[in-house]
Amino acid sequence: MEPRNLTLLTDLYELTMMQGYFREKDANETVIFDAFYRTNPDGNAFSICAGLEQVIDYVKNLHFDDADIEYLRGLGIFDEDFLEYLHNFKFSGDIYAIPEGTVVFPREPLVKVIAPIMEAQLVETAILNIINHQSLIATKTSRIVFAARGDGIMEFGLRRAQGADAGTYGARAAMIAGCIGTSNVLAGKLFDVPVKGTHAHSWIMSFPDELTAFRAYAKLYPSACILLADTYDTLGSGVPNAIRVFQEMRDAGIPLTFYGIRLDSGDLAYISKKARKMLDDAGFPDAVISASNDLDEYLIDSLKIQGAAITSWGVGTNLITSKDCPSFGGVYKLAAIMDRHTGKFIPKIKLSENTEKVTNPGNKTIQRIYDKETGKIIADLICLVDEEFDEKNSLLLFDPIETWKKTHLAPGTYTMRELLVPIFKNGECVYESPKVMDIREYCKKEQETLWDESRRLVNPHEIHVDLSNELWHMKAQLLDSYHYTSN
Amino acid sequence: MEPRNLTLLTDLYELTMMQGYFREKDANETVIFDAFYRTNPDGNAFSICAGLEQVIDYVKNLHFDDADIEYLRGLGIFDEDFLEYLHNFKFSGDIYAIPEGTVVFPREPLVKVIAPIMEAQLVETAILNIINHQSLIATKTSRIVFAARGDGIMEFGLRRAQGADAGTYGARAAMIAGCIGTSNVLAGKLFDVPVKGTHAHSWIMSFPDELTAFRAYAKLYPSACILLADTYDTLGSGVPNAIRVFQEMRDAGIPLTFYGIRLDSGDLAYISKKARKMLDDAGFPDAVISASNDLDEYLIDSLKIQGAAITSWGVGTNLITSKDCPSFGGVYKLAAIMDRHTGKFIPKIKLSENTEKVTNPGNKTIQRIYDKETGKIIADLICLVDEEFDEKNSLLLFDPIETWKKTHLAPGTYTMRELLVPIFKNGECVYESPKVMDIREYCKKEQETLWDESRRLVNPHEIHVDLSNELWHMKAQLLDSYHYTSN
């Protein structure tokens, strides 16, 4: 598929600021911006980052074509020399990012852009749009997959998604976070992920009766024969008719490999248990019972606790919109500006009355610290890029706000891994995105680095995200100096 | 821009059902599907329908290209003759729809598809995806615009939207429902709507100090000079520095046409009133105070009640995701099948334990009934297409559930208007979509046909949607007959 030109997918102020930098400053002044978020959606203890491949595609394809320039000229606020600059625009900076499918925590840079200020400013909106969306859906999906305790979750939300991209890239994020398939055929084609689905009520209604409709479906798709049982009366006609068709298939010698029913309404706990008994009694203990109908992680969890006889779940609206929390609050903040004389980065900080909203300055990276024995995450450490750590030394972690809360890690008890990896170097992409199904495998392993206490749906245990001693002092100093100058 | 091929933007089951129809039935059997919704989002009394232009583009461009066919072949579930059929696929049916920007109510067909069953089935998912998304955002926006009591609302949500389309087509829907502009440049280009925006905190932070940053901005954009005042200390430095710059502009003889400040944090009621006084006292009573920061209709309403001195509002996340209710529950249901011998439509009904979920059968349209004197909506009447009404006769309306609740309209006291208009005839588009800004004007007039009691944010007065006598009896008969056969 032809890549879409999303260059104008930006807020107008990025362009007005760009022209401002072009006019007022050294346009090549190199800066660092961090894209990070402050709160996990849904009270979760972690998020799953996703969307990097689409960010890469976006940056690779960044260019203002003639029609874009013509449109901008028509706005009457841009000068010809600036439009000429845009016409020749190409991203020339560096980008670092955390690979897709990684478990991430608040305040960690998910994407770090080091580029001339005009370029770094332009890409803000699209990077946030893409990362916010896919990370949101991946995080929501991980909760739903967790609630299903090993059962398969199918992504069925396309018709309720917020537009075509929300459906398609939402399906991508859902696959990354553990869905076993999606109903979205375009997502299947674009990302080479399994597509799933059987039939709708309209199939049943378009035949003279339910039994005829079931028979027609079974004849066509005997090897994946899931019959929708609730069009008229689930236990009164749907399940008995399905059993009759399965019996006819068996009598005709057709192998029953993957078959069963789907429930899309009613009391799923009660009906699934009754249906299970009917199917078992009729000699079909391996018939699958799948369910859909406005499911989310809480309903699935509750149905599991009630002993519902459902082992396959189609989840639509609540997954594809992340209904309880439909936005991921990623922001993009200036962290440093390079001094053109020394070539060193001068750290920048954004103040706020709210301590949590004060940004972390400087050129940073993230070290993830694992317990050597279990492989579980102990904490993340946001630090400066030039800091060196040695797992053979002891490591002192402390809470960046309540600094008296300290943890001491003895040498040899922990391992470290740097999360940010190079994506673009001098405008050239140096990273190859894995296939979605490979990211899915990686994401599964990532989630296994969390204790179940951090995965539970309500009030999970939070993972510490600390600052290195050096970063903490740099930040404290900047905060102090600000108060001196403002008084 | 090259139209995107969204043909595979569909659920897999649409294709498996299509193959089923192809194999098992007269593939040319003509059917009627209605796209409608059951509940207004956010407890609203109405919705604004939107997205029709994109539905038209989608249907016009429907075609399976070689790569699509190759992908489907690879799934191993479709036969060659069916793939051949898809390769030659072209939509050949009729579509009726309610024009974009119209006030609509639950259970009314927003889109009606009359087509061979295979075609009508295929388009289900994309039609719902598009209409659900844009109608959701238009409806949310109409609430926010209502809360602002005539102040301008700017759509600023792109970075938090659920992907590129959600940002771009969401901006389109927001403009339809009354926003005065969007920050999304791509939306501005695609839909010829005003784009708005000034600068971010990063602009301020990239200069040595706030005053220098303000001066640089004012120099560049003197005729639209809105300065972001909250980077360091809104009342302590932001507003005084802005005033200093405005004074410098005045002293230099630069006309202050559109200028002022933007507040993006803190207690907006308190700060805006203080800032207003400071601006007024300094001789800038016409300086605009605009605000952003996680606003929604309730916050704007509350700030208005508190007397906040804000007259321009930037609304992002909560608008572009419809945060309190991020999905519009549009569904697509079979309403009739043509008898191939008689050429007449046989009405079809979908039953449900929940009376509200029982569908309305038959080939229907909607008559909107207005009070002749005020032009306000009295009720909508869902009826069959061949029913005739005459405003010169009296009209009896009755509640379709509690049928003893009746309203009698005397001749000459009401007017009627049919809402569904032809969009496609025999596969050819017969409708020209108005420009977005024209739809916006129409939508404004549409909302004026509602009493304020139906527009208020909480517990609004609901408008009656009744069934015609003829449709009501057809439905009752179908319900009865179903119970006879199932017993």
Features:
7-stranded antiparallel sheet, globular, 6-stranded parallel sheet, 487 residues, 37% helix, homodimer, TIM Barrel, 21 strands, nicotinate phosphoribosyltransferase, alpha/beta, pyridine nucleotide biosynthesis (chains A, B)
List the helices and strands and how they pair.
The structure is a homodimer of 487-residue chains.
Chain A: H1 12-24, E1 30-36, E2 47-48, H2 52-60, H3 66-74, H4 80-87, E3 94-97, E4 103-104, E5 111-116, H5 117-122, H6 124-147, E6 152-155, H7 164-176, E7 181-182, H8 185-191, H9 201-205, H10 210-220, E8 225-228, H11 234-251, E9 259-263, H12 268-281, E10 288-291, H13 297-305, E11 312-315, H14 317-320, E12 331-338, E13 345-347, E14 364-371, E15 377-384, E16 395-398, E17 406-409, E18 414-418, E19 421-425, E20 428-429, H15 436-447, E21 464-467, H16 469-486
Helix pairs in contact in A: 2-6, 3-4, 6-7, 6-13, 10-11, 11-12
Short description:
Chains A, B: InterPro entries: Aldolase_TIM, N/Namide_PRibTrfase, NAPRTase_C, NAPRTase_N, Nic_PRibTrfase-Fam, Nic_PRibTrfase_pncB, Nicotinate_pribotase-like_C. The structure is a homodimer of 487-residue chains. By secondary structure, chain A is of the alpha/beta class.
Structure explained in plain terms:
- The structure is a homodimer.
- Chain A has about 475 residues and is an alpha/beta fold.
- Chain A folds into 2 domains: about 10-135 and about 325-485, nicotinate phosphoribosyltransferase; about 200-295, Aldolase class I (TIM Barrel).
- Helices cover about 35% and strands about 20% of the residues of chain A.
- In chain A, strands 13-12-1-5-3-19-20 form a 7-stranded antiparallel sheet. In chain A, strands 7-6-11-10-9-8 form a 6-stranded parallel sheet.
- The first copy, chain A, is globular, with a radius of gyration of 27 Å.
- The interface between A and B is large, with 106 and 106 residues.
- Chains A, B: Catalyzes the first step in the biosynthesis of NAD from nicotinic acid, the ATP-dependent synthesis of beta-nicotinate D-ribonucleotide from nicotinate and 5-phospho-D-ribose 1-phosphate.
- Chains A, B: It catalyses: 5-phospho-alpha-D-ribose 1-diphosphate + nicotinate + ATP + H2O = nicotinate beta-D-ribonucleotide + ADP + phosphate + diphosphate.
